[in-house]
Structures are given as structure tokens and as C-alpha cells.
Amino acid sequence: MSLEIIPTENNIHLVEVAEDFAKSERIDRFLAHHFSDLSRSRIQTLIDEGYVTVNDVLCNNKKDLIKAGDLIQLITPVATPLDLIAQEIPLDILYEDEHLIVINKPAGLVVHPAAGHSDGTLVNALLAHCTELSGINGTQRPGIVHRLDKDTSGVMVVAKNDRAHQDLQKQIQSKTARREYLGIVRGVPKGESGVIDAAIARHPSDRKKMAVTDDGRKAITHWQIKERLGNYTLVKFDLETGRTHQIRVHSAYMGWAIAGDPVYGHPNKEVSQYLAGQALHAWRLTFTHPFSGELIENTAILPEGFEKLLVFLRRRK
């Protein structure tokens, strides 16, 4: 016998690998084999989101090997069904046709419903605007090809059908779509440009955060100085990969966190008088139209608060 599944409550599964388990095996394969109702991709997502521990240590890598005697805890969070409703929330539309829509998302707007945000999201607004949205990401995230954090503003593309969704997602994964951000960091980067190549995974002790770790998923961010503002700096970021909170985590890792970032930085009055969260803006998105093959480039102007913060820092320096 290779394992014993110990019954628990509240969707917490304890798996004890028996002492006679004769081999090492990747944890995602092991769990997918023994939990037939969970796909391997679902297991990998649960690992990425911090729902798996081995011997009370958070598992950050699907490739980790398990061995005899290990005690694995797997949590399958309860999915709360949400009845999505169309809500007339204003949208700043940069481009639209029958296949896709590009919007400039304001800071403070959550992209899709989740715990604590059952309505008032971008998805609710899209449902009021569009008659059809792609269904690839499920009923709670219709049309959503990629996302922005709540307090990050800027360009997002949304798919109206599955073919457009698959093509756009493939462009992002293959890096043929270009995502450029502008951010104000608190600090003075050395040099004028560079590349941050540092793997990112769930924080080992705080499930709500991400962190640079040796065993995380590959993450690469290109950066270039646009303007030096005393002890602050305006930086352009290009994403080569798209990990959760990637720019925010990489900036903090380099010692110059995004200004106003409440999770990875140090919020202060200088920034909070203009912005409610981090000074990060998805400035430009370039991709090939899934149907026409046309190169589509959309730029979102800086939000008013971001512009005012820049003016303040320029005057002060």
C-alpha cells in the first residue's frame, strides 16, 4: 500500500505516504493519480495558490518529490456559486469589434467576481455591454484573457468568442503580444535598464503574497528608466512572463518597490494623497488581431492621480 487517506472535514485532505512507498514521485502526479476527481492541472493550480503542504511546509513547486513517510495536506477550497448580473458600470473602451474589446481599466476596479467581491467588477460591466463573451475561463470569468490587480490601472483585452480567446492567450504565452507598464518606484535603480530574472512562487508563510524563491516558476521582467525624480523613479516595465504580482514582486526584490504598494512596499502620505494603491499602470498592449492579422496597439493615458503624483515629485526634486 502506497498511501493512506485520512478523513477530515471542510475539504482538507491528509495523505500519509506509507513507509513501504518505494520510489520518489512528483507531487502533482502523485496527487492527481490518487484523487481521480481532480485533474492534474487543477492539482497544479492548488499548489501554485498555496493549498498544498508537505510535512507542514508549504509546497511551492509542482515538481517537488514526495517520499515514504511524508504527510501531505491538500485543501480544496469551496467554490461559492455566484449569480453574475449585468451592471451598468462605465467602461473606457479603447478598441472594439465583433471579436474582442480593449478597455482602460481604472484603479480600484476588480476584474472578476470572487470572495468579497460578488459584484461591481469588470465582468459585471462587460455583461451589460456585450451580448457574448468567451467561455474558456468558466462562468465566473467570461471573456477574461489576462487580468490586472485591483489597484493597477490600464490596458486589458477581453475576448468575445473562444477562438479569439485561445489566439490571444497563445500570443501572451508565446510572448508575441507585448505588455508595457509604467510604474513609479521608491528608490534609485542603478543603471538605465536591465532584466530581472528571478523565479516567483507563493510566499512560504503568507498565502496572500508571492515571493522570489529558488524553486518558483520562471519570471522575467525587463525595465528601463524613463525619469529620475529624486528618491523616486519612473520606470517602464516589459513583461516577458506573466506571474501573479510579477512587477510588484520583482521591484521589491530589487530594493525599489512600487510606490504606494500596500503589500510589497511601504505606503506613505506622499503617494496616498494621489493614489489609493500602487503607482503601476498597464500603459500599452500590442497584439495581432486573431482574425484579421492586423497589428493592434492600444495605449492608455496615465490616470489623473498618477499624473498628479508625477507633477508633485518633479516639483519637489
Automatic annotation (TrEMBL):
One GO BP annotation of this record: enzyme-directed rRNA pseudouridine synthesis
GO molecular function per UniProt: RNA binding; rRNA pseudouridine synthase activity
Keywords recorded for this protein, A-Z: Isomerase, RNA-binding
EC number of the protein: 5.4.99.-
Domain spans labelled RNA-binding S4: 25-90
Superkingdom in the source lineage: Bacteria
Positions annotated as active site in the UniProt record: D149
Catalytic activity: a uridine in RNA = a pseudouridine in RNA
Family listed: Belongs to the pseudouridine synthase RluA family.
Function: Responsible for synthesis of pseudouridine from uracil.
Protein name: Pseudouridine synthase
